[in-house]
Amino acid sequence: MANTALEAGNAPIFRAGTSDAEIEAAVLKAMRRRKYVVAAWQAGLLAAILGLWQLASDLHWIDPFFYSSPYGIALRLWDWVREGTESGSLWFHLGVTMEEALIGFVIGSVTGVLVGVALGRNKLASDILSIYIKAINSIPRVVLAPIFVMIMGLGLPSKVALAFIMVFFVVFANAFQGVREADRNMIANARILGASNWQVTRNVILPSAMGWIFASLHISFSFAIIGAIVGEFVGSLAGIGYLISIAKGTYDAAGLYAAIILVMVVTLGAEYVMTLVENRITRWRPQQHMDVQ
């Protein structure tokens, strides 16, 4: 049987009489091919950037003392993995930062969702409290790190508090807006059918706001990491921020970049996990085919 789907560029073009199964198979094939092309370009760009960086360092186009090199950074990471740092195992420092970030992320996310949904459903309360929320949100969160360290000390609580405050306002704002953007016709229909306020919130409001909430969760974990690291940078005895502080004090460029790469890897891993969780929780939503152009 002759092919019923032709291709123009990357997008499939179908002849008359093409079956739904053939159309779906052609679209999935185009999506897979596009995925491979994107991955190849990403790998190529990364290789080009690292290669140019290494070349510039070797030829002294840039000063290796300040900019290090990919090879030097890889060696430092390998030394940390194999022998640990001067202040302890790499996994100990990474575990400290992850503990601080995860606790702050969980508490901040749950609190942000609860407060955002509650105020989104209560217009009077949101009008009363809005000025205070805006005033607190206007404060740059990182400047709170010295205050938390001064009040709570150098241990876990001060880092968790900063991670919490970094996460809370991001999640709160999206949850609040998601509730406000809920379909009013669906809410009215639910009330006509006799749904209570709790049933409307659970079965209409929350599913409608879920996209907004997950959009905030995707970026809020990176804010939790930032909060934990900034707190460690200001004052701590362990953690990735502590390693950055030590590397800064000793002008160890390779150590600085190695710590940054660790943070990037952890954050990207958390983003991947969050995507899996979102896809599992929101399987009820209609699947949207990605653009294959």
Automatic annotation (TrEMBL):
Subcellular location: Cell membrane
Recorded superkingdom: Bacteria
Primary localisation category: membrane
ABC transmembrane type-1 domain location: 94-274
Topology of this chain in the membrane: Multi-pass membrane protein
One GO BP: transmembrane transport
GO cellular component, one term: plasma membrane
Pfam families: BPD_transp_1 (PF00528)
UniProt keyword annotation of Transport present: yes
Membrane-spanning ranges: 36-56, 101-119, 131-154, 160-179, 212-244, 256-277
Keywords attached to this entry: Cell membrane, Membrane, Transmembrane, Transmembrane helix, Transport
UniProt family annotation: Belongs to the binding-protein-dependent transport system permease family.
Protein name (record): NitT/TauT family transport system permease protein
Organism of derivation: Rhizobium leucaenae
